[in-house]
Amino acid sequence: MTSSRWFIATNTENLKFFYDCGLIVDRQAFPNKSYMHDMQAERPKGFLPCLSEDNLSEALKLAKSEDENLIACLVEIELKNIRFEQLFVKSRNSREFECVDEKGFNPIDAVEILLPSPLPLSCIKSILLSDPKNQKKVVQEFLAFGEFSKDFFKNDAKLFKVLKPCNELAPELQGFQYETERCRKTVQLKDIPDHGLDYKKVFAYGNALFLGFYQTKNGRLSSELFEAFANNKVEDDKYLHLRPLASWVFDNQNESKLDSFYGLIFDLIVAEDELGTVRYDLLKLLDNKEDQLPSGYTHVSAFAKRLRERVDRTDKVDVYTYLFNLIEASKKEEKWSSKIFLLISMIFIRDNSETLLKFYHEQFTEEDYFLLAVFFGLIKGIRTTPEKIKNIVGLRDWVSFKMAELMHKSNSAAIVFEKEPSSPILIHKTYLRKSSEQRRMDALQKFCSHIKVDEAEVIAWKLVPKDEYKVNSGAITFSKRPSLYAEVDNKRFESLMLARIKETDELFSFNEVFKIFKD
Amino acid sequence: MAKRIFDLPKEQDLTKDQRIAIRKPADGQYLVVGAPGTGKSVVALWRLKKYADEKEIQFLTFNHVLNHANRALVGDSQKYEMNTAMSWLYDLHWKLVDGNFGNFNKNKMPQISSYQPDYKKLMKKFEEQGVKFSNLSFIVDEGQDLPQGWYEAVEALNVENFFVVADQNQQITDQNSSHDELIELLGLEKADVIHLKENWRNTTPIAAFANYFYTDKSSLKPELPNKPSVHAPILYEYQNLDSVKEIILSSYDNDPSKLLGLIVANDCKREWWSKELKKDDKIRRESAPIINTYDSSQKNRVHIDFDQGGIVVLNDKSVKGIEFDEVFIIIDGFKKISNDEESLKKRMYVMASRARERLFLFKSAVQKSILEEVLPPIGTTVSIDRQGKVEELELMQRIKL
Question: Has the ipTM of the complex gone over 0.85?
Answer without folding.
Answer: yes
